[in-house]
Amino acid sequence: MVGTGESGGAGERWIEDGPELALGVPGFYLRPDYHEVLSWLRRNEPVFPTADGMVAVSRYEDVRDISRDPERFVSGRGVLINDPLRDVGSGGLGAFSILHLDPPVHAAYRSVVNRLFTPRSVAPLEERIREVVRGALDAVPDDEPLDLVDLLAAPIPIAVIAELLGMDGTDGEQLRRWSDATIETADGPPGGSADGMGELLGFLADRVRSSASDGEGLAGMLATTPVGDRLLDEGEVIGFLLTLLVAGNETTRTLLSGGVEALARHPDQQMALAADRSLLAPAVEEMLRWVTPIQAFGRTAVVDVELAGTPVAAGTFLVMLYASANRDEAVFGPDAGRFDVRRRTTPPQLAFGFGEHSCLGASLARLEARVFFEELLARHPRFTLAGAPTYTASTLVNGARTLPVLLGG
Predict the structure, then answer these.
(1) Where are the beta strands (DSSP E) in 125-259?
(2) What is the reported pLDDT for 5?
(3) Exposed (0-12), middle (13-18) or buried (19+): which is 270, by Cβ within 10 Å?
(4) What average pLDDT does the segment 332-353 reach?
(5) Which residues partner with 306 through β-bridges?
(6) CA distance 147 to 124
(7) Which residue ranges make up each domain of the chain?
(8) What class has domain 10-406?
């Protein structure tokens, strides 16, 4: 899925055949011609009404314009594709989340944790992240196929974010199962994932109650730091921790696994990166652009507007297709459909969003990815795929479920 994407004729056949585009169906994001369809949309219908009542926005500049205009395009009426009408107080993923807040409230809440995730704040974590990465690499075989997601891409960011949130010592596998269950609820009906989601919320509630009295750890800080003229209530603290835990590992997991897959599918790029570590910073940006861990987020237009020459009525739920924006030829050039670790992305890729809701943990994810690929390529400069990957069917996360790799390839 992340290793393909050059434009071709399938997108044309898709539109000529006339099937309706339904963004709420997770399988749409797994179709083999996914990026060709996105290319067709950018060229022909950049603001596209879908069969399930949404509007797909596929061009870079339009996505960025929506993201930086929270007065006309709000988050409070829903940001996930399959819950566009869910409000902040409806429970489940609609429980308090900073993702759903609009100005001026959003800035006040974000300021509580902003300072913990600045580049300067996360820089001292590099040594600890390197220890985690080296420990994980020490434990995996280099002479037989392994599932890179299960053994490296998933446990490393779980360990890092758990420690940062004061949850070190908690079973990493359990945190991963709970986090995955939370992602699954984004596409409801939740089914079995509801139990996992409930267990995670119970776990977080216990952490909040045990730390609120002494102010220890991030939970304690959140419980004792005023937002405006009041303290956060228990549900708000739980919502903060839930967002940080899930976003802090799912995005980075997908970046690591997707980056490995992209390098394995492009051995010339893998060799270039292994030979010149100075390319790591642009390579991480290119991995973010190419993989785009988060498929899309939504905003609701609250006034009549015009996008790309197309009228959009107030009340329309607009889906910003980040994966499409990150392959926009008008921004990244005619070779936007090519993976290139030497690419200098100016303007920047949109994998972390843009504007006030840009990813809080972007600096941490970049640091983890740089350290991971430094350590991986130092030991294994030529790794290969050892089988066909499988992917998570999701409208939110563009992630490999399994990634068979031979590190000693």
Answers:
(1) 146-147, 226-227, 230-231
(2) 44
(3) buried
(4) 92
(5) 311
(6) 30
(7) 10-406
(8) mainly alpha
